[in-house]
Design goal:
The structure is a single chain. By secondary structure, this protein is of the alpha+beta class. It has a domain of 106 residues. 38% of the residues lie in helices and 20% in strands. The chain contains five helices and eight strands, in the order ββαββααββαββα. The strands form four sheets. Strands 1-2 form a two-stranded antiparallel sheet. A two-stranded antiparallel sheet has the order 3-4. Strands 5-6 form a two-stranded antiparallel sheet. α2 packs antiparallel against α4. It is globular. The N and C termini lie far apart (39 Å).
């Protein structure tokens, strides 16, 4: 496994997983712990904008879990979908749900490429990107980023 460095955290992926074991990715079907962090699957701009704060809040809530719940709680998926951050978990708590919803809401207002404030835009797809990153993407990939919807 390549050890990725996260500048916004000031640590590598291996260091992150050692410090916060709940950041280890898990196979949602089997429950098996994988050798990389789900944190690295969050788009870079969102990690820059709020990654450290999100992890700190999640870690504080995780400490409140019972020993049993710590063994059971896991992140089973992370992605950008419909222009927002989606973090899927197995067992959860109302407070952890509130934390994840907070950062899903924040992801609507921050560029997924660079982390700057932005508005969502769309051309059949929803892009959460600042003007500069959106224009660079369109220039690089063509109008509408060369992405087609199933209805085109």
């Amino acid at each position: 496994m390549e050890d990725i460095y996260f500048p916004e955290l000031g640590m590598s992926e291996k260091e992150l997983m050692k410090k916060l074991p709940f950041t280890k990715a898990t196979n949602g079907a089997t429950g098996k712990t994988l050798d990389f962090s789900w944190y690295g699957k969050i788009p870079k701009g969102w990690r820059i904008a709020f990654g450290r704060d999100m992890l700190n809040e999640m870690a504080a809530e995780y400490k409140n879990f019972t020993r049993h719940d710590r063994k059971e709680w896991r992140v089973t998926g992370v992605m950008e979908k419909y222009g927002e951050l989606r973090i899927y978990t197995g067992m959860t708590t109302p407070r952890m749900d509130d934390i994840l919803e907070k950062y899903t809401s924040l992801s609507h207002k921050r560029c997924l490429e660079c982390g700057k404030p932005c508005v969502q835009r769309g051309d059949g797809w929803i892009y959460t990107m600042c003007e500069d990153c959106y224009e660079e993407m369109v220039e690089r990939l063509g109008h509408g980023a060369g992405i087609r919807t199933p209805f085109d």
